[in-house]
Amino acid sequence: MTQKHNKTAIVTGASRGIGAEIARHLAADGIAVVVNYANSSTQAAAVVADIEARGGQAVAVQANLLQAEAADSLFDAAKAAFGRVDILVNNAGMMELAPIGQTSDVSFARHVALNLTAPFQLMRKAATQLVDGGRIINLSSSVVGLYQPGYAPYAATKAALEALTHILAKELGPRRITVNAVAPGPVETEFFLDGKSEELVDHIRSMNPFGRLGTPEDIARVVHFLASSDGGWISGQVIRTNGGII
Ligand code: NDP
């Protein structure tokens, strides 16, 4: 039986992959969830149906985070559906790999817009709209600490997101709002698998001390903990959630 405690979460990019699993985990704990998506309406509806079938509450909200009004519309939709916002999970993100010499302005700008500007606008909104004792969790990446060739725009935007995380944690601490980042290593979602050969995926898997890739559930459990009352004394941290690969 799902325990109801009247909390509400916005999870960006929750139609697929890690975000969908985060939405399911929060909902299983009785948290009403706004399942944001850009294009995958069928998959977002399936996540909502899954949550409702288990006794939880969720609503799918289309908002393309590349558009400036997305932050306002997501908070408006959350309040209209559930009355308040307690938790913001900035999960949606993108990655295109290329050496800096081969990177286009368009690709760089897209990384900045989705991985940095959109979470910034949502955090700014959350700074005034989140209830006292709320939670903000940003999805960074373990590649921030690796300085791997080909990852420059992605790693740079995630590093900047970590900087925002540390600063906002200090700004919102007086209201008992925690702000943290979860930084996964490779996780078996389309995001990671797309464009990689089976050999390369096997190689990356073998590099992990656990001999496997992360799963969306590995990451969702940590986000859930940070979102829970047990995570209330953790703030301004980056939790590298990767099986010890770095
Ligand atoms: P997926 O590609 O599997 O899912 C991405 C999600 O983001 C989808 O729900 C998608 O919605 C949504 N999205 C994409 N563009 C937009 C947009 N413009 N507006 C709103 N939503 C959008 O990604 P993952 O689940 O793998 O990754 C989630 C997060 O975890 C990202 O921030 C990523 O950087 C981070 N991460 C992932 C790792 C991995 O190996 N998978 C490793 C380290 C970090 P739609 O379906 O509608 O397009």
Question: Your description of this structure?
Answer:
This protein has 246 residues and is an alpha/beta fold. It has a single domain, classed as NAD(P)-binding Rossmann-like Domain (Rossmann fold), CATH 3.40.50.720. The protein is built from eight helices and seven strands, in the order E-H-E-H-E-H-E-H-E-H-E-H-H-H-E. It has helices at 17-28, 41-53, 70-82, 105-129, 152-172, 190-193, 198-207, 216-227; strands at 8-11, 32-37, 58-62, 87-90, 135-139, 178-184, 238-241. A seven-stranded parallel β-sheet has the order 3-2-1-4-5-6-7, with helices on both faces. It is globular. It starts with 7 loop residues before the first strand and ends in a 5-residue tail after the last strand. Residues 12-19, 36-40, 64-66, 91-94, 114, 139, 141, 184, 186-187, 189-192 line the site of NADPH dihydro-nicotinamide-adenine-dinucleotide phosphate.
So, the CATH homologous superfamily?
Answer: NAD(P)-binding Rossmann-like Domain
CATH architecture label: 3-Layer(aba) Sandwich
Q: What average pLDDT do the residues reach? A: 97
Total individual domains: 1
- Compute the CA-based radius of gyration: 17 Å
Helix fraction by DSSP (H/I, runs of at least 4) = 40-55%
Strand order of the largest sheet: 3-2-1-4-5-6-7
List how many beta strands DSSP finds: 7
Tally of alpha and pi helices: 8
CATH first level: which class? Alpha Beta
For this structure, the CATH topology is Rossmann fold
List unreliable stretches of 5+ residues: none
What fraction of the residues are assigned to beta strands by DSSP?
5-15%
Q: How do the SSEs run, as a string of H and E?
A: EHEHEHEHEHEHHHE
Largest sheet: 7 strands, parallel
Head-to-tail CA distance between termini: 38 Å
Which class best fits the helix and strand makeup? alpha/beta
The small molecules bound here are: NADPH dihydro-nicotinamide-adenine-dinucleotide phosphate
Task: Give the oligomeric state of the chains in this entry, treating copies of one chain as homo and distinct chains as hetero.
Answer: single chain
